[in-house]
Amino acid sequence: MLPYVFIVFVLSCAYLPEFVFSQIVPVTNDCPHPAGVLRATSSRQLLLTPGFVNGQYPPNLDCSWILKAQNQRSKVELTVFISRIEDRLFTDCDDFIEVLDGEQSGAPVAARWCGSTHPFSITSSTDSLYVRFKTDANFELRGANMSFVDYEPPQCPQGWLFAATGDSCYKLWSPRQRVTWVEAQRLCMYDRSNLLTVSSADEYRSVIGMYSVLADEPWIGYSDAQFEGTFASVNPTDPVWPPNFPTFGNSHEGKDCVYLNLKVREGVGYAVDDCRAQRSFICKKRK
Ligand SMILES: *[C@@H]1O[C@H](CO)[C@@H](O)[C@H](O)[C@H]1NC(C)=O
To answer: Where is the C-type lectin domain positioned along the sequence (predicted)?
Structure first.
């Protein structure tokens, strides 16, 4: 009984984007400028934009936070639960959140958004992320509810799973608002990962073992959008697996993207769908 309960518990933690908070940072009314430093730990901490709790951010803000891991070997992961920010009128966002990959205001942009679409999760390449929230004089909305945590590779970040024998971390994202194949790959890349591609039968079995109880049908990283009938990995240098890749009956016009049917117990549970269909997805990153 006990091992079963344990496995279900681990899986449901990975599956649901809800987290247990052991510590909450009260930054709600704080708009540091210049940037304030928040120390990330292995406990998830909340980062709310000013006014979020009352339902509206003030005009003319320019707040910045440096999220810094406990040590230089660690990475910071920022999760965005909710983000409601004035949408762009033309090409530029007047109000926006920008996440830079580093601790300086001049570090490369990892993500920048307004409106209601946003990254789910962003991972640093070094030990820091720089988060900036800027608003203009008009149209104040609710703002963002985010959280951050650090982890030290080769550990996987919170909410990611690993196979006992492998060198990768996996995450099945199953949001209420599902996404197209291209959007799924974009969301994986914010976390320095790609849509899942498989490198061996062992890895395939491990992934199915991790997620089959969920009976979901997530996008994975194969498509033949480039050359009809020739499936390729999202990272073109990775070979496809299995090498004798399924042909899906040869007539799958308009269905160029591969998803994984987690209920299939025999053989390989790949199937194809219109790339614009909205699905959950699995990201994979090397440790
Ligand atoms: C922020 O989101 C988390 C996760 O969904 C939730 O538990 C928390 O209550 C939210 N905070 C506020 C102030 O809405």
So the answer is: 165-284
> Which of 81, 146, 158 for a ligand 1 pocket mutation test, highest count of atoms within 8 Å of Cβ?
81
Whether the CB of 17 sits within 6 Å of ligand 1: no
User: For ligand 1, atom 9, which residue shows the shortest CA distance?
Assistant: 145
Who contacts 74 (Cβ-Cβ below 8 Å, separation ≥6)? 40, 127, 150, 151, 152, 153
Q: pTM to 2 decimals?
A: 0.88
CATH of domain 25-151: 2.60.120.290
Closest residue by Cα to residue 115 from 132, 90, 137: 90
Domain ranges of the chain: 25-151, 161-286
Between the CA of 144 and the centroid of ligand 1 the distance, in Å, is 10
The tokens describing 10, both together, are 């681990």
Pick from 274, 273, 259: which is nearest to 197 by CA?
259
Alpha carbon of 147 to ligand 1 centroid (Å) = 9
- The CATH number fitting domain 161-286, selected from 3.10.20.310, 3.90.950.20, 3.10.100.10, 1.20.1260.10: 3.10.100.10
Query: What is the residue with the minimal CA distance to atom 1 of ligand 1?
Result: 145
Residue whose pair of structure tokens reads 């040590």 in the numeric block: 71
Ligand 1 near 53 CB (within 6 A):
yes
Is the C-beta atom of 81 inside 6 A of ligand 1? yes
The Å distance, Cα 180 to ligand 1 centre, comes to 26
Q: What is the pLDDT along the chain (287 residues), one digit of tens a residue?
A: 333 333 333 333 344 344 444 455 544 458 999 999 999 999 899 999 999 989 999 999 999 999 999 999 999 999 999 999 998 888 889 999 999 999 999 999 999 999 989 999 999 999 999 999 999 998 889 999 999 999 999 999 999 999 877 899 999 999 888 999 999 999 999 999 999 999 999 999 999 999 989 989 999 999 998 888 899 999 988 999 999 999 998 677 789 999 999 998 889 999 999 999 999 999 999 98
